[in-house]
Amino acid sequence: MRIGGSTGSPHTPRTHRHGDRPTAEPERAADRAGCAADTVTIGVSIPVPEPHGSLLQDSRAGFGDPLARCIPTHITLLPPTEVAGDALPAIDAHLRRVAEEGKPFDLRLEGTGTFRPVSPVVFVRVAEGAEGCSRLQEAVRSGPLRRELHFPYHPHVTVAHDIAEAAMDRAFEELADYRGAFLVEAFSLYRHGEDGVWRPVRHYAFA
């Protein structure tokens, strides 16, 4: 997905009307990873619900991003992570506990940002709900999923990645006035398929 990669970036991104904390786009790492037969690549994310999910995915496809249909619209909690296949039951139990202890929170998307020139990414900003995302990703990234991030966590929704500069500019401008809000009531575990598609494995609703 850009379910995955690292969730930080070594630079301050350019944003639409606002300054954001740095991050890096989470997806290409898993695209390049060659997993051993006894490992799988997973990610954990907040799925962006309808109508926002389809609208942003269609927009991403319209900008010419070849991965648009392989990656459900999401906000990353755990970047692409290789795990042993026999660890999945423990991971499932861990995520169920996280969901049981979690609470729904409001999330608002507003405007665009970019990590260029360091990382070729344009995204829609999380204008409200970033703290809820941060708390949730810290809980997810613990126990059997404990791992360090290279850069500070920064929630966002990718709408263009590693495409022509003109198309990146168009994504930045055309979605600059985008607004969308929803209640985060669950998160999902995804698995990266051999065909390059990220698919949800299980959804975890908050108690």
UniProtKB/TrEMBL annotation:
It comes from the Bacteria. The keyword Ligase applies. Residues 20-31 have a biased composition (Basic and acidic residues). Pfam families: 2_5_RNA_ligase2. Gene3D superfamilies: Cyclic phosphodiesterase. The keyword Phosphoprotein does not apply. SUPFAM superfamilies: LigT-like. Keywords: Ligase. Residues 1-34 are annotated as: Disordered. GO terms for molecular function: ligase activity. Transmembrane segments: none annotated. PANTHER family: PHOSPHOESTERASE SAOUHSC_00951-RELATED (PTHR40037:SF1), PHOSPHOESTERASE YJCG-RELATED (PTHR40037). This is 2'-5' RNA ligase. It comes from Allostreptomyces psammosilenae.
